[in-house]
Design brief:
alpha/beta; five-stranded parallel sheet; three-stranded antiparallel sheet; 9 helices; globular; binds BIS(adenosine)-5'-pentaphosphate
Length: 217
């Protein structure tokens, strides 16, 4: 049983590494960003409420995202989870600790992915995703093998996110430094923090994540 948090700024590579762990370690990815985008796409009341906040790059309220995670934990029989993009505030971190305890689970590791701002801009502005299976690509660092065709599922429905632009990214980074980066100290104090170089090539980052998880096993 492994429960981990991938912690890092927008574009650090959390989603990319989470998808690898799902394939390789049979863990369930819980991405609050994906859950919110799904709610937006299906036009639920909550999805409509958060659409503008997300497009601007601001954080959605703690109440909404904690509710989403609680629902997933209540309805899943999975052994282990990768929390991707959650928690993002101290209130969310406290809530996660309580939810895990209520389910008889504990946190095994918080992996901080360190990437500098310049690289984040390049990563975010070059990102595109398969609209069918969610595989994440990049114009330069991870292009599809056949132009416009998803390597994983063969779909040609490639999408770019509404918040992947310079203005939103500035706000997303500011939100990260103001509200999320204090979690680094919080988890360090709890003895759960592992810090890795997120600037390395995707396979090397995956190796560093695997080394942390193997230490915990
Ligand atoms: P969310 O979807 O969580 O976005 P984010 O945190 O900004 O993170 P990203 O998905 O942009 O980046 P990533 O780290 O997953 O990077 P990726 O692997 O794609 O949140 C979106 C919004 O939802 C928030 O702004 C907020 O409004 C709301 N929200 C979500 N959760 C919330 C919460 N808990 N509380 C409140 N509000 C919340 O990689 C990026 C690119 O780089 C890709 O193209 C990839 O191919 C490439 N890449 C990845 N790794 C490497 C590497 N090692 N080398 C080179 N390229 C790489």
């Amino acid at each position: 049983m492994t429960n981990i948090i991938l912690l890092g700024p927008p574009g650090a590579g959390k989603g990319t590494q989470a998808r690898k762990l799902v394939d390789e370690r049979n863990l369930v990815q819980l991405s609050t960003g994906d859950m919110l985008r799904d709610a937006k796409a299906s036009g639920t009341e909550m999805g409509n409420k958060v659409a503008d906040v997300m497009a601007k790059g601001q954080l959605v309220t703690d109440e909404i995202v904690i509710g989403l995670i609680e629902e997933k934990l209540n309805n899943s029989t999975a052994d282990g989870f990768i929390f991707d993009g959650f928690p993002r505030t101290l209130a969310q971190a406290d809530a996660l600790g309580k939810l895990l305890a209520r389910h008889g689970k504990k946190l095994d590791a918080v992996i901080e992915m360190r990437v500098d701002d310049e690289a984040l801009v390049a990563r975010i502005t070059g990102r595109f995703t398969c609209g069918n299976c969610g595989e994440v690509y990049h114009d330069q660092t991870k292009p599809t093998k056949i132009d416009g065709v998803c390597d994983a599922c063969g779909s040609t429905n490639m999408v770019r996110r509404a918040d992947d632009n310079a203005d939103s990214l500035r706000t997303r980074l500011m939100e990260y430094y103001k509200k999320t980066s204090p979690l680094i100290g919080y988890y360090y104090a709890n003895g759960d923090l592992f810090s890795i170089d997120g600037l390395a090539e995707i396979g090397e980052v995956a190796g560093a994540v695997a080394a942390v998880l193997d230490q915990q096993a």
